[in-house]
């Protein structure tokens, strides 16, 4: 009887985790300078750009008070869900991560860095419409010319 309950409870927990985990995987990840160096590129040790990830990524450089950044945030959230298996989405707060902002010369926001698995990243200034961001992701990051 007790063993039966443990098995049922384990099955319920497994189902709940299965339902919750995809949502967690789709969220935009907040990126610190140390995480950037560990996951993306360690500019303190390397001279030539070499992306460390196995999926392309998008990094949204923002601040909490920036109006255009606030308008970009839900677009990035939506795209992170749409491309969850293909592209990793990050956010880096330029006021908290001043070193990153300095290294990449982030002087106006929003700025978005698009990083393909192979090749150099592209850093674009300003707020782009969702359709343009999708085109950049499809063409530049995923190599699907439409």
Folded structure, characterized:
There is one protein chain. This protein is of the alpha/beta class and about 150 residues long. The chain has helices spanning about 1-25, 35-40, 65-80, 100-105, 130-140, and strands at about 30, 55-60, 90-95, 110-115, 120-125. Strand 2 (about 55-60), helix 3 (about 65-80) and strand 3 form a beta-alpha-beta unit. The protein has a 5-stranded mixed sheet. The longest helix has 25 residues, at about 1-25. It has a single domain, classed as Glutaredoxin. It is about 45% helix and about 15% strand.
In short:
The protein is of the alpha/beta class and 146 residues long. Helix content is 45%, strand content 16%.
Percent of residues in helices comes to 40-55%
CATH class designation: Alpha Beta
CA radius of gyration: 18 Å
Quaternary status: single chain
Largest sheet, if any?
5 strands, mixed
Q: Which CATH architecture would you pick? A: 3-Layer(aba) Sandwich
Determine the CATH topology.
Answer: Glutaredoxin
The SS-based structural class is: alpha/beta
Share of residues in strands: 15-25%
N- to C-terminal distance? 59 Å
Give the helix tally. Answer: 5
Give a count of the beta strands, DSSP E runs of length 2 or more: 5
Low-confidence stretches: 11-25
Shape from CA axes?
Answer: globular
Task: Tell me, rounded to a whole number, the average pLDDT.
Answer: 86
Strand order of the largest sheet: 1-3-2-4-5
- What would you give as the CATH superfamily? Glutaredoxin
- The ordered H/E elements are HEHEHEHEEH
How many domains is the backbone divided into?
Answer: 1
